[in-house]
Amino acid sequence: QVQLVESGGGLVQAGGSLRLSCAASGSIFSINVMGWFRRAPGKQRELVAAIATGGNTNYADSVKGRFTISRDNAKNMVFLQMNSLKPEDTAVYYCNVFADYNDYWGQGTQVTVSS
After folding, report:
1. Residues in the chain with pLDDT < 50?
2. Which of 4, 56, 85, 100 has the fewest CB atoms inside 10 Å of its own CB, making it the most exposed?
3. 86-91: Cβ within 8 A, 24+ apart
């Protein structure tokens, strides 16, 4: 079983920055893809960014050039640096890890961007 603990959400003005962190712990043999999803009010959950073990990344078009995903394989952590934040980035952000052929989710952290 894998537990994910997220941190770093909060309230920020438009144009500001936040950094999300997610730490995976538990009985882990191998983590493959780590990523971040978000769910805005009234919308479906969407992929924000993902990073594979080798470092290949994938971003939603809406965040390209503003967000950067990174990971620390030694510590089983994934990060999301969010710059130039916009009000439309307001959402609950969820850490996601695909490990040992299973999908795991964090509890979510609220990001609110004021205009």
Report:
1. none
2. 56
3. 86/14, 86/113, 87/14, 87/113, 87/114, 87/115, 88/40, 88/62, 88/113, 89/38, 89/63, 89/113, 90/40, 90/41, 91/38, 91/39, 91/40, 91/41, 91/43
